[in-house]
Specification:
Layout: E1 4-5, H1 13-21, E2 26-27, H2 29-40, E3 45-48, H3 55-73, E4 85-88, H4 92-105, E5 111-114, H5 120-126, E6 133-136, H6 138-147, E7 157-160, H7 165-168, H8 172-180, E8 187-192, H9 197-206, E9 211-214, E10 227-233, H10 239-251, E11 255-259, H11 263-273, E12 279-282, H12 288-299, E13 305-308, H13 310-313, E14 321-326, H14 333-340, E15 350-356, H15 361-371, E16 376-378, H16 388-392, H17 416-419
GO molecular function: ATP binding; hydrolase activity; mRNA binding; RNA helicase activity
Domain Helicase C-terminal: 242-386
Pfam families: DEAD (PF00270), Helicase_C (PF00271)
């Protein structure tokens, strides 16, 4: 398919100009045929989409265009707290990322982003004026509805982004409550990487004759093209030094995200790594203001290595990540795709490396089978083991309140919580968790 010039889509010139300023001149064929066209025709649809495929722009253009034209033709402004469009996302990071992209596409419209974890007051005030689009997390949207600060009676467009993640973040019930209160005459668009039964149920209840668009395809590799995959066998003992070596050899000074399993591991790995390379941690115990600082520092290149948990990294928009390292094997194939999808975005090249113990070799095989991908095994000779003890120090203090940088802190059970990696030969893929994508790999690790 050919790329399509934005200027030829019949979109309002104000938006075309804003896009040109962001150097966006064309839409990818996928954006255009799978998302933009049905959205422009007013169809309800659900798209199975990978992260990083430019879907925000594809669904955003028709909505922003319609509101812009309405605005221009209407004599009166909308009333306060009554958006024409509501976009819901499972995490505040994703909500902020979507709002940022939509705002830069239509700077002449009024967009408001609402999410939990910060004072409700300033967000409430931002709704006391005429607004066009609200982007938010379902919990905070419900808060605003209950206070009467947000009204849904004029909503014409409803977008649910990363719908399957609403289950993981505990927003499923809120989403249903909100959708029940929307006007019948509206257009609903949903995006989801997977189709659990809850999502299918939403389709049946809240969408009219929806088009199902598959941007993933079953035997299609579910990772963005352009991501090179390596696997690397490690032992508990050489794992840390090996990580350091991989960052040096494959990171080549670019942006690197390292995924660990727990907040404790994330903290300790970041501490050990930061002795040789600028590195910070991102996990749930780190206060919001510190997370924002860490993220902007990583985006701006003030440090090159970010060690994160899965939850903390969900929905983060970090352009140009060169390397993703799975320091801990992911809980399931879906998580592997999500983590690895942080690199190779929007057509760029990237590398993902899976570190695993001998016993976890089966996990690698399962991922290959589920995702339809192939790992190339890396053999890393002569790893410098002199830093091994840095990685076995445990300085993690839960919720220290100091941006997760704990002070002092004891040794704590012989490093990494008593050698909990690949306990006793892997212990098998507990409880039949082997089959298929959902349900993870059981509790065997």
């Amino acid at each position: 398919g050919e790329e399509l010039a934005v200027a030829k889509l019949g979109i309002d010139p104000e938006i075309v100009r804003a896009l040109a300023q962001k150097n966006i001149i064309n839409l990818f064929p996928v954006q255009q045929s799978a998302v933009y066209q049905p959205a422009m025709k007013g169809r309800d649809f659900i798209a199975r989409a990978k992260t990083g495929t430019g879907k925000t722009l594809a669904f955003g253009l028709p909505i922003l265009h319609t509101i812009t034209v309405e605005r221009r033709e209407a004599t009166s402004r909308t009333q306060p707290g009554c958006p024409r469009c509501i976009v819901m996302a499972p995490t505040r990071e994703l909500a902020k990322q979507v709002e940022k992209e939509l705002t830069s596409t239509a700077p002449h419209l009024t967009l408001v982003c609402i999410y939990g974890g910060v004072s409700i007051e300033s967000q409430r005030r931002s709704l006391e004026r005429p607004i066009d689009v609200v982007v938010g997390t379902p919990g905070r949207v419900i808060d605003m509805l209950q206070r009467g600060s947000l009204l849904l009676n004029r909503v014409k467009f409803m977008v649910l982004d990363e719908a399957d993640q609403m289950l993981a973040t505990g927003f499923a019930e809120d989403v249903e409550k909100i959708m029940e209160r929307l006007p019948k005459q509206r257009q609903t668009m949903m995006f989801s990487a997977t189709m659990p039964s809850w999502v299918k149920n939403l389709l049946r209840r809240f969408m009219q004759d929806p088009l199902v668009v598959d941007l993933v395809g079953d035997n299609d590799e579910k990772l963005a093209e352009g991501i090179k995959l390596y696997s690397c066998e490690a032992s508990d003992y050489n794992k840390g030094p090996l990580l350091k070596e991989l960052v040096n050899s494959y990171g080549k000074g670019g942006k690197v995200i390292v995924f660990a399993k727990t907040k404790r591991d994330t903290h300790n790995v970041a501490q050990a790594m930061s002795r040789s390379v600028p590195c910070e941690a991102l996990h749930g115990d780190i206060p919001q203001f510190q997370r924002e600082r860490t993220l902007s520092g990583f985006r701006d290149g003030r440090f090159s290595v970010l060690v994160a948990t899965d939850v903390a990294a969900r929905g983060l928009d970090i352009p140009n990540v060169d390397l993703v390292i799975h320091y801990e094997v992911p809980g399931d194939s879906e998580t592997f795709v999500h983590r690895s999808g942080r690199t190779g975005r929007a057509g760029k090249k990237g590398v993902a490396i899976l570190m695993h113990t001998y016993a976890q070799g089966r996990v690698r095989d399962t991922i290959e089978h589920d995702v339809g991908c192939r790992f190339e095994a890396l053999n890393v000779p002569n790893v410098d083991m002199s830093c091994a003890q840095d990685f076995s120090r445990d300085t993690y203090v839960a919720s220290s309140g100091f941006g997760g940088r704990s002070f002092g802190g004891g040794r704590g059970g012989g490093g990494y919580g008593g050698g909990g990696f690949g306990r006793g030969g892997g212990g098998g893929f507990g409880g039949g968790g082997f089959g298929g994508r959902s349900g993870g790999f059981g509790g065997g690790w």
